[in-house]
Amino acid sequence: MRVYLPATTTVLRTLVDEGRLPGPHTAFAVTPQLREFYERSDPRADLEELEYAALLAAARASLRMLDVDPLAVRRRVVLAADVPDGEVAPMDDPHVERGAVRVSADVRMQDVASAHIDDGDAEDDVRAAVNVVLEADLGSEDAQFVVDQAEGHELAWYATQELGPALELL
Asked: Which residues contact 116 (CB under 8 A, 6 or more apart)?
């Protein structure tokens, strides 16, 4: 199953240096709940659109991780990984986002299909969003506006062999 794992540059450095991220992990995937939600508004939603929605949910979770990782570069990071279906369980909690899953296994470098990382021009907006993301989660419209500014930046795509060099540039 393809999952989207929220991360930070610190987490990405661990993956590159150690070759794996010890489980368990909270990630996002195309779950029945996510599919049902999006198909209500657009019955023609295809798998690519649903995977993009899962990736965006992981990018929002990356903002939350940055809030508690002061050493990480202020860029959102999402890892797209393929893990065995048996290692993934949906989170059946109405308080978590649609598409949230629990991955019980380690995520190894060979499981990672790609990484998605903000460009440098997003850093100021991401920094501002990190400071208010929890307020946005609680319903603050002003905070949501700030988070929307960060989420307006597209994440750049990186192949796994590009991750080490990409980290060197951060």
From this structure: 55, 59, 76, 77, 78, 79, 80, 155, 156, 157, 158
pTM higher than 0.85: yes
Does the pLDDT of residue 13 top 90, yes or no? yes
Q: CA torsion, points 8, 152, 111, 28, in degrees to nearest 10?
A: 90
Q: Which residue has the tokens 């010890």?
A: 22
* CA distance linking residue 145 with residue 136, whole number of Å: 8
Q: 166: which residues sit within 8 A by CB, 6+ positions away?
A: 115, 117, 158
Res 94 pLDDT > 80: no
Amino acid identity for residue 35 in this structure: R
Helix (H), strand (E) at residue 112:
strand 112-117
